[in-house]
Design brief:
This protein has a domain at about 1-40 and about 100-175 and about 290-360: 3-Layer(bba) Sandwich (FAD/NAD(P)-binding domain), CATH 3.50.50.60. The two termini are about 25 Å apart. Strand 9 and strand 10 form a beta hairpin. The chain has about 425 residues and is of the alpha/beta class. The protein contains 12 helices and 19 strands.
Length: about 425
């Protein structure tokens, strides 16, 4: 059986490796001419690390990533709201990792080249159209630089081509652009001294103004510095809401520094971290409404093409990895391709739709907004503002929705 994958991002490459290991022939087509280690930091949750470990990538991940020891939420004054251990430090069988997206992308690409063969990864070809035939699927790809078109036929086509998916657009031509939240994520990396445990992930503020930071390089350099990923969330001024969003725009530190100039905590100097970044990029926080279906006979969607979501709860890349595991199992266990893709959709579509909708409500990060609403000037005693029971219920509820509730996950192989 030949499976065509449109897109060589996290979801597409994980699916390619997973499917090939189960005996499927795989051909991957990627729009860009050269896959480069671009981006900033991402997190991989234990349920996704489990999948990657089973694919033989656990040792490489451990060498390149930071095993997150804790996640902590703070208010805008640096007062702790919630802290919990993560990954193996919380008793999971698998770690939670923080890693540079580009480093992880190249790890997957190198693995895919070795496993499925470099000749089966075609770069510079953007999906132009696809259609189901009686007993196969036909896809046309175009090289946007040369206008050369090539055709491919296979038994299955997986659209893993991101939030601007051409595969999704073919089946939902009137859907329009991704839905913009009104929040811009300003993202950068900077070398700085370790904070808290040296492998902590922190979030401070509330829905309208938030700062996230976590290290993405294991160990420290000769100056005792780590590479730290940071994200500063700020709302777009109302008069700019209707503007078309730029998905990879650089901005100056001066644009965001005034908003965070007083965020100098005992354990982290936020303005110093912003100023230390050699480059800052703007990303519109966007998603799409959940779909009623992903699969159309022999064609289906995966990852951000299927369920783009706000980067809340560290779930975007992790859910694409879970999609890859699921679609592999369904195709391996059900010889009827159309039935297999339907089964995959029935498992993954409801699960990811819940996460998309929960992330719009800030997911587990809603504890920061609750504290901001109840104690905008800070607090003397946290539990006068929010109870321990309420904090635990919010954290536990999201783990169940996102599929990494500890006891359930640890029963898996």
């Amino acid at each position: 059986m030949l499976i065509i994958i449109a897109g060589a991002g996290i979801g597409g490459l994980t699916a390619a490796i997973s499917l090939f290991k189960k005996g499927f022939d795989v051909q991957v087509y990627e729009s860009v001419n050269e896959i480069k280690p671009l981006g900033v930091g991402i997190n991989l949750l234990p349920h996704a690390v489990r999948v990657l470990t089973n694919l033989g990538l656990g040792e490489s991940l451990a060498q390149l990533a930071v095993a997150t020891t804790e996640l902590a939420y703070y208010n805008k004054f640096g007062q702790e709201i919630w802290q919990e251990p993560r990954g193996k430090f919380a008793g999971y069988h698998w770690p939670q990792y923080s890693i540079h997206r580009g480093v992880f992308q190249m790890l997957l690409l190198d693995a895919a080249k070795k496993i499925i063969g470099e000749k089966n990864i075609h770069t510079g070809y953007h999906l132009q159209s696809c259609k189901n035939n009686n007993d196969n699927v036909h896809a046309t790809f175009i090289n946007r630089k040369t206008n050369e078109t090539i055709s491919a036929e296979g038994d299955v086509l997986i659209g893993a081509d991101g939030i601007h998916s051409a595969v999704r657009k073919q089946f939902y031509p009137n859907e329009g652009a991704p839905q913009f939240s009104g929040i811009i994520l300003h993202r950068g990396t900077a070398r700085a001294k370790p904070f808290l445990s040296g492998s902590s992930m922190i979030m401070a503020g509330s829905a309208k103004q938030k700062f996230v930071a976590y290290p993405i390089s294991p160990g420290v350099d000769e100056n005792g510095d780590q590479l730290i990923n940071w994200i500063a969330d700020l709302p777009v001024p109302e008069e700019e809401l209707s503007k078309e969003r730029d998905w990879n725009k650089k901005c100056d530190a001066e644009k965001i520094l005034p908003k965070f100039i007083d965020w100098k905590f005992d354990w982290l100097n936020v303005p110093a971290l912003i100023e230390a970044a050699p480059a800052i990029y703007e990303f519109p926080m966007s998603d799409r409404n959940p779909l009623q279906r992903w699969s159309f006979e022999r064609i289906t969607l995966l990852g951000d093409a299927a369920h783009p979501m706000y980067p809340i709860g560290s779930n975007g890349g992790s859910q694409a990895i879970l999609d890859a595991e699921c679609i592999t199992a369904c195709l391996a266990n059900e010889p009827d391709v159309i039935k297999a893709l339907y089964q995959y959709e029935q498992i993954r579509l409801p699960a990811t739709s819940k996460i998309v909708l929960q992330n719009r409500q800030m997911g587990p990060e809603q504890v920061m907004q609750i504290v901001e609403d109840r104690a905008p000037n800070g607090f003397e005693n946290l539990h006068d503002v929010i109870s321990q029971t309420e904090l635990e219920e919010i954290a536990d509820r999201y783990k169940k929705i996102a599929g990494f509730e500890k006891e359930t996950l640890n029963q898996k192989q």
